[in-house]
Amino acid sequence: MTQENTADVIVIGGGVAGLSTAMQLAQRGRRVIVLEREQLGNGSTGRAAGLLGQLRGTSAATQMLMDGVEIVKELEQLADVDIFVQTGSLLVAETPERVQEIVNLVKMGKSIGFDIDHLAISEVAEKLPYMKVDDLLDACYCPTDGHLQPAELVSAYIKVGRENGVRYESNCPITEICIQNGRVTGVKTEQGDFFADCVVNATGPWSYLVADLADTNLPTAALQHYYLTTRPDENHPVDRMSPAIRDRHHRIYSRPESGGLIVGIYGEETVEHDMESVAVTWDMSAMKTRRDDIFVATLIYAAQQRFPWINERTPMTITTGIMTFTPDGKPFCGKMPNVEGLFHCTGFSGHGIVQSPAIGVIMADLILDGKTNYDITAIQADRFFDLPELETRTQIKSKCYDMHAGYYGRVEGSSDSNSSNA
Ligand SMILES: Cc1cc2nc3c(=O)[nH]c(=O)nc-3n(C[C@H](O)[C@H](O)[C@H](O)COP(=O)(O)OP(=O)(O)OC[C@H]3O[C@@H](n4cnc5c(N)ncnc54)[C@H](O)[C@@H]3O)c2cc1C
User: Fold this and answer.
1) H/E element holding 404?
2) Atom 3 of ligand 1, nearest CA residue
3) Which among 47, 112, 75, 54 has a CA at the least distance from the CA of 361?
4) Which of the listed residues 45, 177, 220, 228 should we mutate to test ligand 1's pocket, taking the one with most ligand atoms within 8 A of CB?
5) Does residue 292 fall inside a structural domain?
6) 16 lies in which domain range?
7) Which is nearest to 34 in space by CA: 70, 56, 10?
8) Residues 145-171: pLDDT tens digits?
9) Across residues 220-247, what is the average pLDDT?
């Protein structure tokens, strides 16, 4: 056993989930090695739109994200960088049930001290002169929301992690998880063996394959996501400090970007990916899509419902990437009962950037103390363990796909609410 390749914790996967976890563990004095298949931050993380919306359908989830924004601000101090752009955000309602949703969310948010209130439509129009408002019935405003560039968050996690002794290995896919007597002992890679009695699976869309290496059935699916970014248009100027928008009725979210507008969609349909068919050197940033793709056409149509000046001739770029969905749209954080020392940190269902700061704290708590002060009932990794209806990949993919299809369609506070507010 080489001392050099021995750590207290090995984190597999260098996206925001793994990097945040590694940083938190190192800040608490643990020796951590991050092993990344390709380049750090180049998986789902590198494709994200970077919205940081704190409002969720439950107080536990909202509280976690409120803490997350504070952690990002502390990170800015530690890494000596400006990351967070606090633009505020709006949730808009154009149907009576969406109005009720806003009423419920404002009440819930206020009950935990989250800065949120209703906003008159005339004020919405003032804040967003480039947005159609004549069909809106209500809106709520969250002034402490905002966005960031995911690459800047990645750099900050790495900078602070490195200062605290984290070792990062890129181009280092793990090929085996070593287990003796039901306990994890390390991993094998093409660059040699690494040893630790704690291993974290933070491999995003690949996480079900990595779990499989430890004979663990992790119910996640890899689903494609799309957003557009318009070029600056002097007829429809977008102030860089304009609030983000969530319009769940039209299934879209939006934020300002470099004088243009990002608009993304959680549509009813999308493309499923089998990560086992992807080459080990595959680069997600090379994913391209065509303007005549049906999913892009659906995105442009949905964007046009709220921003009528956007159409198929509007100068824009399309970004696409893969998200990791779970059957209930919530992540998996913690251990499964079958392998001691193997933790999972994945399944962020489109919200891994915003969740990563607090998730790193939660993972470090669970790994070092076996418990956390956060209410993690909804995100425990073992909540579907050995469920017969989630045994096969076909069953799992179908459940995750259905969750994605209804992600923005559902109304928060209804019986099937899933806390998805991008
Ligand atoms: C288009 C798009 C827009 C998005 N917008 C937002 C947003 O606005 N806000 C938000 O909060 N979230 C957003 N998300 C979701 C967010 O990007 C993800 O939830 C988050 O990046 C997940 O991070 P992760 O670390 O779990 O996964 P990843 O970033 O995918 O990291 C996993 C890493 O594991 C590595 N890996 C895989 N297999 C192995 C192996 N065998 N050995 C070693 N390493 C391995 C991969 O190479 C990868 O780098 C968006 C996602 C997409 C695709």
Assistant:
1) helix 393-405
2) 48
3) 75
4) 45
5) no
6) 9-49+151-219+327-389
7) 10
8) 999 999 999 999 999 999 999 999 999
9) 97
